[in-house]
Design goal:
This protein has 125 residues and is α+β, with helices and mostly antiparallel strands. Helix content is 18%, strand content 34%.
Length: 125
């Protein structure tokens, strides 16, 4: 069964979000998503300063099985990317919620269209 931490918010597209104390949002893909992808071998991350609307494709995770778009869970600006994924994309498989995060965004507005952990568990069960 996939790990679904209670302290995160989720999207129906299998991204997770952690809102920091300063309002920034750390984003990655869920344990369920990394398991479905299998072994991630390459990650294409956006550039710092890039702006996205909610639902826009902002990154790509390529695995031995497929390439999958990663969608912006909220409209906003990319202010940090996880450079460690360039050399070690397997961190997404090994630690999707800690070391395998992808980007940090400054949102244009508060999160609204997200799922809590219970709702996300129901979605993937």
């Amino acid at each position: 069964m996939s790990e679904v931490p209670d302290n995160l918010s989720y999207t129906k597209d299998h991204e997770w979000m952690l809102v920091d104390d300063d309002g920034k949002i750390r984003v990655g893909i869920t344990d369920h998503a990394q398991d479905a992808l299998s072994d991630v071998v390459f990650v294409e991350l956006p550039e710092i300063g890039s702006k996205y609307s909610e639902g826009d494709a902002m990154a790509v995770a390529e695995s031995v099985k497929a390439a999958s778009d990663i969608y912006a869970p909220v409209s906003g600006e990319i202010v940090e990317v996880n450079d460690k994924l360039e050399e070690s994309p397997e961190l997404i498989n090994e630690s999707p919620y800690e070391f395998g995060w992808m980007v940090v965004m400054v949102p244009d507005k508060k999160l609204e269209n997200n799922l809590d952990s219970e709702s996300y568990r129901k979605l993937i069960d």
